[in-house]
UniProtKB/TrEMBL annotation, chains A, B:
Residues 32-51 bind DNA. It holds the Pfam family TetR_N. SUPFAM superfamilies: Homeodomain-like. InterPro entries: Homeodomain-like_sf, HTH-type_Tx_Regulator, HTH_TetR. It comes from the Bacteria. The keyword DNA-binding applies. This is TetR family transcriptional regulator. Transmembrane segments: none annotated. Residues 9-69 form the HTH tetR-type domain. Keywords: DNA-binding.
Length: 205, 205
DNA sequence: GTCTATAATTCGATAGAC
DNA sequence: GTCTATCGAATTATAGAC
C-alpha cells in the first residue's frame, strides 16, 4: 500500500505490506494468516506478536485502504475555485490513476463494508462527506431540483469505478488484456467529463 | 432464488434455497455449512447427504446465479427488431427489476468470479455473448470507430449495476433508506436511456 | 525479536442408529 | 431420509526455547 522505498522494511512493515496485498486480493474470510506470514517472509508466531490477531491486523489494513481511497477526494470536492466540470475532470484523473495502481481496491472495500457496515462509521463517514460537499451543492444547483443529484453522483462513480470492479468479468486474464484495459481507462480521463456534461444537459432539454 | 410456491419444498430444495440466500449474502469463504443447514431447518449431515460437499453445493448456486443474471439479456441484445435506444431501455427495465429483487447478486458474482475466473468459461462466456451481439454491432455502428464501443458498454453497466453494488456504502441501513433507494432505482429506468443517448451524441459534436 | 512446537477452536465431512 | 455424535483436517493463537 505505502510507497516502496529502497530502504529495508522493518518486520512490522513487511507484515503490514503482505497483509494489505493478500487481504485486498482475497478478502478477510478467504485469507489465511499463514499466507500473510509466508508472503512477508516470516512465520506465523511473529504475526501475532506484532498484531495480536487476524482481526486487529485486518483493522489496520481496512482503515488504511479507506483512507487511500478517500484521500485527495475531499480537497477536489470542496475546492471553491473550480466549477462542476473541473471537479469531475479532477476526480476522473485522480481515480483512474489511483485504480490503475490498486485495481482491486474498490471491490475489496465494497465487499468488506457490506459484510461489516460499521467500517464506515468507524472511519470517515463517506455519505456525509459527499452530500455536504461543495461539489454536491454545485450538483444541486445544476440539476435545479428537476432530479435527485444523487443520480449523477451514482453515474459518476458508476462510469469511473465500475469498470475496475467488473474487470474480472469484462476483461481477459492475459497480460495483453490488462494493457488494453489500462489503455481504455486512460482514455476515460478525457471522456468522463464530457459524458457527465452531456448527461447533465439532458435536464435543460 | 426460484419463485416461492405455496406448495411445500422438498428437503433438497430447502437446502438449495438456504444455500443460495447465505452464499449470495456472505460469499463462499465466509459461509459456514452449519449456517446453511440451520437456515434450511435441517442438520449438517443432511446437507452432505444431498450435495456431497460445500463446493458442490456452491457450484449449483453459482451456476444458477449466473443464469439468473444473464437470462433474458441475450434476447434483448439480439432482437433484430429494436434500435439501440430500445435495447438500452429494455436492459434498464430488466435489470432494475431484477436487482431490486436480488440486490446482492452483482457483488456476489463479481467477487466470486474474481476469486475463481473459471466460473465464466465453465458456464456461458459473457464476453463473447456481449461482443458478438446485435446490440454490440449497433453500438459499433453508432460510435463509428471514433471511440471503442466497449466504453459505452461499461458506461451502461456502470450506471445500471454500480448503484446496487455500492448501496452498502451509499445508502443507510434503515428501512426508509432502502425504500428511498428503490425509488431512485425505479426513476433510473426512465433516465438511463436518455443519459446513454446523450453520451452517444457526444461523438457527433 | 524470532523461531519451533503445540494448544484450542472451528469447520467440513462421515459413521452409524433409527 | 433424517438424526446425533464424532472424526480429521485446517486454522488461529500461544507457550517456551533461543
Amino acid at each position: 500500500m505505502a510507497e516502496q522505498e529502497t530502504t529495508a522494511l522493518t518486520t512490522e512493515e513487511k507484515i503490514k505490506e503482505a497483509a494489505t496485498k493478500i487481504f485486498i486480493e482475497k478478502g478477510f474470510s478467504a485469507t489465511r494468516t499463514r499466507d500473510i506470514a509466508m508472503e512477508a517472509g516470516i512465520n506465523l508466531a511473529l504475526l501475532n506478536y506484532y498484531f495480536r490477531s487476524k482481526e486487529k491486523l485486518f483493522e489496520v489494513v481496512m482503515t488504511e485502504s479507506l483512507q487511500l481511497f478517500l484521500v485527495g477526494l475531499e480537497e477536489i470536492l470542496n475546492d471553491v475555485n473550480t466549477v462542476l466540470k473541473d471537479k469531475i475532470a479532477g476526480i476522473a484523473i485522480h481515480y483512474v490513476d489511483l485504480l490503475k495502481k490498486y485495481p482491486d481496491l474498490p471491490l475489496f472495500i465494497l465487499s468488506e463494508v457490506k459484510a461489516n457496515p460499521s467500517w464506515l462509521e468507524a472511519n470517515s463517514n463517506v455519505r456525509e462527506m459527499l452530500t455536504q460537499s461543495n461539489f454536491y451543492k454545485q450538483l444541486e444547483a445544476t440539476t435545479q431540483k428537476k432530479v435527485e443529484p444523487l443520480h449523477f453522483l451514482m453515474n459518476l462513480l458508476g462510469v469511473l469505478v465500475f469498470p475496475f470492479v467488473a474487470s474480472p468479468v469484462l476483461t481477459g486474464t492475459e497480460a495483453a488484456d490488462k494493457a488494453e484495459f489500462n489503455q481504455l481507462m486512460e482514455e476515460r480521463k478525457y471522456w468522463i467529463p464530457i459524458w457527465m456534461e452531456a448527461m447533465l444537459k439532458t435536464l435543460s432539454a
